[in-house]
Structures are given as C-alpha cells and as structure tokens.
Design goal:
The structure is a homodimer of 359-residue chains. With 359 residues, the first copy, chain A, is an alpha/beta fold. In chain A, 27% of the residues lie in helices and 26% in strands. Chain A has 11 helices and 17 strands. The longest helix of chain A has 14 residues.
Chain lengths: 359, 359
C-alpha cells in the first residue's frame, strides 16, 4: 500500500470523525475524490438519515470524475430498503475508475457485495488500507452490527488505591478539570451514558455535555427499586425525553406515575426477586432502541456487575493522584479478568489509562 | 541562556548518569571543556572516592585550556577534609576562562562558595542552566544532603483495583517482563531495596539485578519479630554481606545467631511492644550507614506504614491490566494524601505511573 493511499484514507478518517455523535447507529464515513493526485471533491456522512459521504463528495466535485479515484473509509453501500439510495450504482454512473477503502462493511447486507458490484463494473478496488485505524474509528458500529449489542465503555475515576469515594454514600471529587473535559467529550460521542440510581442520589450529576461543545447523550438510570430522588437535577433537564429510567416489570406505583409526568422515558424489564435487572436483557433492549454505544459512569455496584459479567469492551481509568487508604472500592466481588492495555496519557494532574477486554 | 549552553549541560548529564549506582552517596557529575565551540575534554565522576569529573576532564584535554569554558552539572567543590582535593583551585590553575553549571551544590560546605572562589579569581560563572533537570538527575543526593534521609521511592505492582495479590499469603504475579526489567534497572541505581520479612517469606525474592546489567543494591529486610524463613533465597546470596536485617533491640535468640552465621548484617533498633520499629529512627540509621536512596518493594504493611507516615518521596505504580476484585489491597489504613503526577508510560503490557509527594 502506498503512503499516498494511507494519507488520503487518513484524510477520510478526519472528515468522518467530524460527525462523531450525530450519525449513530450508522458508521462515520468520509470520502475523497482524487484526480492526478489532486483532491477534486470531498464529503462526509453528517447526520443519521442524511446523504452518504460518497454522494456528497461526488456532488462536490470541481472537475469531471472520469479517471478519478474515490477514497472512502468504509465499503460503499449497495443495499436498498433504507433511508438513502445505494451508493455503488452512483459511483459506477459517475465514471470513477478506482475505489480505495479501509474497511469492508461488517453489515451482512453489504459486506463484500459492494466491492463485488464495483469490480463487476470494471472498477479497480483496493481494500484494507489502514484497516485497524478504520475499525477503531467505527468501533461502536462494528460492535453493534456484529453483535447486536452496544459498544460499552466503563469509566472509573478513582484514587491510586482503587477507591471512588472516601466514604460510602458521600461524594469525593477526585479528578481535575482536564479529566472532566475528557468525560464530557466522551458523553458527546456515546449514544448514552448509564449510571445506577445510587449515583444520582449521592452525586446528583446532570450527565450532560457542558465543558466542551457537543450534543447531550441519552441518560440511562438503572433503578430496579425506583429509589431515585424526585428532586434530582437529571429530572429537570431541558431534554427530559432523553432521560430514561430502567426499572422492573410489575412496579406500578405512585412514583412511576410522577416520573412519567416529568417527561422521562420508563423502560420496564424482567428482574429477579431482589429487583436486579438482567444486564444481558437490558443490553438487548438498548440495542433495539438503537443505542449502539454506552458510557458507564457509576457507581461501584454498576461497575462491579458489568465487569464481573464481562459485559464491556473498554475500561477507562481516570487515575487521580490521591491515596485514600480507606473508602469505597470502585470494583468488588470475585472478578479476576485480564485485559489488554491500549494506552495511557496525562490529563492535567490526572492520568487516563485505557484497557480493552481480551477477545 | 543560550541553546548551546543547554546542549553542553545536557551532555554533562549524559556523562554523569553513566555512573548511576556507583558514586553514592556522592552526586553524579559530568564535565566538558569547550574551546571555540569544540569539545576538547570530558569526564565524569565514575566511582565513590575516585577523581572528580572536572579533574578527569582537565586531564583529558587535547588542547591548552586557556580561554576554554568548563561545563559541569554541579558547582565545583572547594572544601577540603575529604577523599579528593578540591576542584576549584585546579580549575583556576588550568587557566579556564568561564564556568557554566547547572546546580549549586546543596552541601553547605560548598554551596555558593565554589562559585565565589571562581569569581574571585576573575572567572566568569553562569549558574542554573537546566537547573530542574540537574536536580532531578541528582534527586538522591539533594535529598540526602539537605535532609540527612535517604530518597525513598515506593514501588507497587498492582491490579487496576489496587490489589497486590489474589489472596493474602499467596504470591500473584501481575506484571510482565518489561515492568520487571524496569524494577531491575531501579535496583541497579538505588543504594538499597527494602521489604518486610513477610514479602520474603511469601514471594521468596532475590532482590538483586538479573534482567539488566548493573550492580546489586543492598537488600534491607524489616523483621521486628525475626520471622524470616532461614531457607530464603536472599540468605544464599553470593554478596550476603549486602543483606541487612533490621530487627528489634533485645532480640537475642538462636535465630539471630543463625542469621549472623550466614553472614548477613544485623541492625538492631528500638521498637514498641509489638516489635514495630520506628521508621523515622530506621531512616536516620540508614542515612548514617550512607544509604542515600531506598527502593521499597513490599508488602502491603510496609507500603501502608511508609505512606501513612508520609515517609517517601516518590510513589511508582506498576499497573497490570488485570482486575482481581478481591484480594489483598496494596495500601490500607487512613491515609488520604494528595500527590503530584510526574508521568505515565506503557511498559509492555503494563503501565508505569509516577507520583511525587507534594511539598
């Protein structure tokens, strides 16, 4: 693979990521049209339901497309029965000579078929250019399409000795501004954040995006017993329809009524006798609701459940430079799980570490 | 300060650090002689008791030293009553025109006086070039000279949830080869490693340098009750005189005799009724024994005591990509201490994080 191909595909990634948070559960896609080493058109999929990157690039072209090369980080689509017409016929019709892509589309309706149709039309196709970066870019989409489950990241802000608060039922603010900004950046790209009701009742967070530009995620509160404080800030959000409460089937009391009245969405799920909701069933339900990515923010019980059941893809530790000694551990129970280290970086006074579950 | 000055001082640091582990409790010092932008001589203090960097550089000079500049990371010495004659008179005698240094020597017998003697002889002196890097290079020396205590680093290899073993009294091997190499590199530069007897009895470590080139540190075992297993590997070391056991005054039993017979050195210290040795008194004693740097490797009780009493300079976490959930916490007790983050870096599959105690 030539360096030039890698560079143009990298530019597609840069275009694609501009739509982070806005195209889900679709993938992020950027496209470039290049003729004689010159970029003559570009585009990216900007919004769920909107035009695809390839078509925007074709429409933006400043020259005739004969003998041009299309760079695109994902295999162009060829399937119908969706919101937009397929791209492959339009690529063929435009007279494009060569198509360079990063990833085959894992969607079985496309996977390899888009490439085949291009080849059948006499177009040269090069695949798997910067494939790993492409997959990383669209990790939410790849997980969602392949497993019908959201991509799950667990974010834990903790002390060096693994504690999240000095004392149970009391908030301890551990991380600094840069780490908090990072959290807001993540909220702006994940479809939803999820916390337990205890976290709402103790920390009273808003779980929205304030420290950076970006759209708010859906806010999902796991609350089997409906213990949520009715005066929580999260119940006063302007976009209250994006606050979802997950509780048990059969709970049908006054509080449920009051919550509905506030405009929150209630999802009722099967649970055991202790009102513990099955996490697997919850994830199936969230996938049905087109939640393709989930950012789990607390607290200790939620962390421990998702980790013990191995229901996560990434573990993100925001390590504050503090030793508490005593306090509430972020994770408890019999876990013993090995992960792959992705990276580590200083975020102001804190350190971010990312790990991924081993396959 | 010119870039050229910084570059030459940096070269002094590179020379100086070649002697890491061999000059303690002296500082590491490198020296360059420069004439018309050309290096005409260089040297470094290679061994405790050996010639100073400045003198080696002067003796190595390939040209006459008139009009030359001496670069040296530490203020040249001017005091007598020590193993080597003072450097300042020899610098003056050599006809050197200018001296550029990084740090003033914190040793009160020198501090500023060396510079003053050079100035009095009509030599131009520039100080504080790359001062912070110089201080970092000689952090052991600066601490030892200023506080009459060793520089103390606590190294903890732990899981993401702050555990050092899956089960008390059982070893769990958490970190990989690169992290272990890092530990051996540190052992090769600290004067001594320190562990509790429990760590010896459970892990049976050798605490020497095997994975990298370097000299072995002294191995200090804190053992108030003399619970050390007599078959430990550490008691079979070829350099057994470098294994020191710290125990209580008044213990005078058969085991003490057997240990002495093996050739280890026994230091007896005051202790409380539970045979807990006063750490402050221990550090005073180690300083008297010219231990200027101490690398603390375990276990949980030792970590917790040193951290709770704030008797450390650096905390180094080797974070294995593992969640244990249950197990023995690295640190326990009522600590609540804030640190400064120094840096973070991937070491193979693990992550190293360094923190420093706030002033």
């Amino acid at each position: 693979m030539s360096q030039q191909q890698n560079d143009f595909i990298k530019k597609c990634f840069e275009l694609a990521v501009k739509a982070a948070g806005f195209v889900s559960p679709n993938p992020m896609v950027g496209a470039l049209l290049v003729k004689q080493d010159k970029i003559i058109g570009e585009g990216y999929h900007q919004k769920y339901g909107g035009a695809h990157a390839e078509i925007i690039a074709i429409n933006s072209a400043t020259e005739a497309l004969t003998d041009s090369t299309l760079y695109c980080n994902l295999e162009p689509c060829c399937h119908t029965h969706k919101q937009t017409p397929p791209c492959v016929p339009q690529i063929i019709k435009a007279g494009i000579k060569k198509v360079v892509i990063s990833n085959l589309d894992p969607n079985p309706a496309v996977s390899g078929k888009g490439v085949q149709q291009l080849l059948n039309a006499g177009i040269e196709v090069i695949t798997r250019v910067s494939e790993n970066e492409g997959q990383e870019l669209n990790k939410f989409y790849f997980k969602f399409i392949s497993n019908a489950k959201p991509y799950i990241s667990i974010k834990i802000a903790q002390s060096i000795d693994g504690k999240i608060t000095e004392e149970k039922n009391k908030q301890t603010w551990l991380t600094g501004e840069e780490a908090q900004k990072y959290v807001h950046q993540q909220r702006a790209i994940y479809d939803a954040v999820l916390v337990g009701a205890e976290t709402i009742n103790i920390d009273n967070p808003e779980l929205n995006v304030r420290l950076v530009d970006g759209r708010n995620p859906k806010r999902i509160i796991l609350d089997g017993n409906l213990s949520l404080n009715l005066n929580s800030k999260i119940l006063k959000a302007a976009d209250i329809e994006n606050t979802w409460i997950i509780t048990c089937n059969g709970i049908d009391n006054e509080k449920l009524f009051k919550l509905k009245e506030k405009g929150v969405r209630i999802l009722q799920m099967p649970a055991d006798q202790l009102n513990h909701i099955s996490l697997i069933k919850l994830l199936d339900e969230l996938a049905k609701q087109k939640i393709s990515s989930l950012f789990i923010e607390g607290g200790s019980n939620i962390f421990s459940q998702f980790i013990t059941e191995k229901l996560f893809d990434e573990l993100i530790i925001l390590q504050a430079p503090v030793v508490l000694g005593k306090g509430l551990s972020a994770i408890s129970g019999s876990v013993n799980i090995s992960l792959n280290t992705i990276d580590t970086v200083k975020l102001g006074k804190d350190i971010k570490m990312s790990f991924r579950k081993c396959d």
